[in-house]
Amino acid sequence: MSEGPTKSHGRLSIAPSAAPRDLMSDRPSRAGAWYAQVITLFPEAFPGVLGLSLTGKALDQGLWALEPIDLRIFGEGKHRKVDDTPAGGGAGLVLRADIVGKAIAFAQRKSRLPLVYLSPRGRRFDQASARTWSQGPGVCLISGRFEGLDQRVIDHFGIEEVSLGDFVMTGGETAAQAMIDATVRLLPDVLGNAASVEDESFSAGLLEHPQYTRPAVWKGLEIPDVLTSGDHKAVEEWRRAQSEALTRARRPDLLAAKGTEKG
After folding, report:
1. Alpha helices by DSSP H, 66-148
2. Which pTM was predicted?
3. DSSP state letter for 43
């Protein structure tokens, strides 16, 4: 008995058959819109949080497009196996190069986006990475699982390895959503306020200054006087000083990096 289509997030679905069909969309997509592909064993995880708030609204408006690609449909045998034991022995399983290679070929049927494998041994993703990705056509993310991906597919396709941080997760789906979110919010018209992006943590190589709003007094704590003074220059200087102090206390490595850039 054949299985029904796997519905990922209401916009894209793919049938588990030996001959993958093209993905369908019921959302508009503007010409040249930033495009994210995710090769994953769990396409139903998408869009997840990406379908909410401003990123979800931008997705509905066609400011960017999302295509989760189900790796399982490229697997072999009755159970569509995508992995095997490590060559040379050892615990766990490794994603097969031939299976992932088929998924990549399918992803590249329309366009050849930069390929990125989400791996804890990769270059650390940061705000500069998000900015670089946002200025390109999009990205194809390969979500890692098990003990990793056969090195041959990484070498053959020249895949870049990128890590969300110095920790290990059960899979790359959460990391993929985080990276896409950080990138999409930098696209034109997504946030609607370019100044807010410029003032955020890491945008200038510093952590963001403290923020306050009403009420003026809460549990005996007042908003700093400078912020209600109406002196815009003083406010700017205070915020800069606060950003530098916070960065020095919590992330001195960022200050060191800024010093290296200037040197």
Report:
1. 97-107, 127-134
2. 0.83
3. G
